[in-house]
User: What shape does this take?
Amino acid sequence: MNGVQNGAMLGFAWKVALRELRGGLAGFRVFLACLALGVAGIAAVGSLTAAINMGLAAEGRSILGGDVSVTLTYRSATEDERAWMNAAGDVSEIADLRSMVGTVGEEVERSLAQVKGVDGAYPLYGAVGLEGIDTLAEGIEQRDGRWGLVAETVLIDRLGLALGDELSLGTGTFVLRGALTAEPDAAAGGMALGPRVIVATEGLREVGLLSEGTLYETLYRIRVEPGTDIAALGEDFAETFPEAGARWRDRANAAPGVARFVERIGAFLVLVGLAALVIGGVGVGAAVRGYLNRKVPTIAALRTLGTPAGTVFAAYLMQIAVIAALGIAIGLIIGGGGVALAGPWIAEALPVPARFGIYPTPLAIAALYGMLTAALFALWPLSWLREVRPAQLFRLSGGGETTDHIPRPSMLAVLVIATLLFALVVAALSGAPELALGVIAVITAALLILRGVGALAARGAERLARGPLGRRSPSLRLALGAIGAPGGGTVDVVMALGLGLGVLSAIGQVDHNMQRLIQTQLPAGAPAFFLVDIQPDQVEPVQARLAGIDGVERVETAPMLRGVITQLEGVPAREAEIDPDGAWVLRGDRGVTYSVEPPEGAVLTAGEWWPADYDGPPLVSFIDEEGRQLGLEPGDEITVSILGRPITATIANLRVVEWQGLGMNFIMVMSPNALRGAPHTHIATIYADEASEAPVLRAIGREFLNVTAVRVREQIDRVSGALANLGAATRWGALAVLLTGLAVLIGSAGAAAERQVREAAVLKVLGAERPTILSSFALRAALMGLLAGFVALIWGSVAAWAVTAFVLDGDFALAPLQALAVILGGALLNLIAGLAFAARPLRLRPAGVLRAEAG
Amino acid sequence: MTDTLISLAEVSLTLASPAGDVEILRGIDLSVAAGERVGIIGPSGSGKSSLLMVLGGLERATEGRVEVLGQDLTGLDEDALARLRRAQMGVVFQAFHLIPTMTAIENVATPLELAGRADAFDRAADLLGQVGLGHREGHYPAQLSGGEQQRVALARALAPGPRLLLADEPTGNLDGKTGSAVIDLLFGLSGEQGATLVLVTHEQRLADRCERVVRMASGRIEDDERRTEAAA
Assistant: This one.
């Protein structure tokens, strides 16, 4: 055919498509629902992520607390540094540290708190939310010789405080003057180990919490003149103070941790949405198959009139494209519009700022995913139109299933290429290509396995129906026969329900194993407390006091400093070429200690430990894995900024560190002479049983006021809680997957309903009562659901095992109740979908059905 | 004195359609004695198939009294009607209406299993043998010809040993030779079982094989002819 003829044929195909679409969308409800649900999920997650990113960008100043933030560890700025800052703009100085706060009186209650010391300029941007007082200055100023304090409500509740009560902090007491309800720069900080407390920096200094060697950070927020080139300012600071060991952050990247987290969780949830879309694709395929079945007489007539197979294919492809576009549009309206409309409510629940609105990029990505999915799953059944002969069509006009075929090799090749293209597009757009490709590989494998299992199950059911089992009762035989019948929907149900339940099962099992690993494995060999800020002259008294408490098994202490790695082999750390997995070591300040002996349990993998009397140039022992990621080996030099002083040390050895036990371990252990004279405190780990935790806390709290005790069990609970929230978010995503699966089930049950109407009529003629017929329908639905649940459990558990073993690096344990719930849930869901369509076959009189059948 | 198996008095049937209500049966009075073989004949749309549906309890009369096998069908619910058919009726349709997911023997055994008969499959095998399909027991309907499917349907209808056999155009979808073979079986086997036969057909030739021929037109009985001898 030449181009003109091709154009004419396409024009004719379009006319046929429009005429066919006049029949309405009655047969496409499930198609539309499947596509709309999947697209809506992806559009919603994308819109939410975009809203948070926009919020973070727009509120960057408030989140950061300035246009620029410079963080120093263990120290305040030097005079030169401070002069540079003052020249750059208005400056606010903040001290941030962890400490214990406690009630004052006979019954002392103590709690770990994240303490912030601020000056009069704080906050440069945004506003502090307070209750009980009007301004922060009122809350923290010194009045009648006593400093004030504001604290988060959770701490006030925990300690049972009222405004005006006294609180111990460091070596002094403060007066609680107000409740802190909002901290503008909260998202910029790292992980807080306790509720926030704000006091005046001067007050902190008075109670000894900013003395030399204590663990604190000083943050300088700078408000610059509008139009200032912030990047150039950053470069100037780095060049002027190359050994400062400072962390520089500006408003464009105010909360990198939050932004990274939002990006990762957003990418993950989009992939979960993609799973929903793929399940929707199963429904799309089934709907297209059903549509073509109904259209056999029309297709037969068109072919008989001389319409080429390609034109018929084009006509139906156009119809499917139009309906898919409608489904995608509905999804975009629900997903994108829903998030925009619900913005005010979502914003209240979010801990970070968000700017809600309609964002075209995530909507375009969701639409693209929707189109690709619809094309992938519709092409398979549509390809039948290119292959079927007119004579076959007329034979099929009398009824029967038509399009459950294997396409010819050329079409299979097109489908494989389309799948790969889909995977590449998703990987490129997801922002997490490795994760995206992994998820797509798992979903594709799961779909193929489920399809195979569905087909095998159908064949097996057919054999069982014919065997002794089938002869036990007509209800069972009928149920097994329906599962095994061509076009019985078994493959669709197993694929849709199996994939949906499998995703839910995998997420549930991973969550269970993460919680289990944290709650059981980690604490088994972990200490009960960390003590920080122990002054050198307190080390022996602390050890002696703890030795007298029953249940304390052992106490380990070590000198504790913190330092920032500024150079690797003379190359500035930020310019060094390293394995990205090890970049975290360079990102902030890291723990440093010194020791004559190797730490207990450490194994040297390269180099030698220094002699006990070593007194040469500074040496350092580095942890093995991260050391290799940084390209370090014995003999190499690193420069570490400790208290603003650069210390260049030679790598003496690499050692293996067992992190999992939560014991005391440092990235860097230096030779004692390297840190001689550096002011520092000590850290201690206390190994004790649970019953002795309260006496330990009381003893430290009363007798060593400056020492901070971090209760490990409490922190593990905090991490568990955070993980539980994350688990809940992903479970909601998985439920969306299941919802799409349910739409497919309903579609499948709807398609089976017509056959059930015929069956019920014939069975009634043969004398079957309605309960008998109903039990047969219920049995087939439950059996199919059980099968899907079982397969979902297997593949979901394999996926969860892989994540647990290779990503979490832990032992996998199946959650038995959850496993049972997946299997029974499958049966129940399909039962509900099946029974929802059982009423009509039971209600209809046989005569009407059989009369219509006879034509 | 003969038992009356079917007794219809002033039976009407009106069905709803998009164009409005359609009167299918109008004032039918009919009485059939046990053991009779009655042919119901009439043109398309005369109401003969609907009359058969009413007799089988597959359709409810709009008015009048329907008494079949000693039961007033108008007073029975769907499940009671099903039990009555299971125990005492067999029905054969023009479109066969076999269950596509069951083999021939399973189709025949189904009504017996529903009745709780332990020998369901033995009897089904016996009946399939009687209709000449002993070798096709394990075949699905789609694997059988039209004539074979109708023979399976006949075996299924006769399986419970019904007192009343209702046949609606049983040869309508078959060629002449195959149809004759099925009719021979229908008359032969129902006769052997002593079942009362009501045969709906539009073929005079088939109706003539019955001792009694009821002629219908426009939903009414126009003629009820009893013969001393049926055609061979």
Remarks:
- Chain A touches chain B at residues 462, 465-466, 470-471, 473-474, 477-478, 481-482, 484-485, 758-759, 761-772, 845-848, 850-851, 853-855 (CB under 8 Å).
- The longest helix of chain A spans residues 712-765.
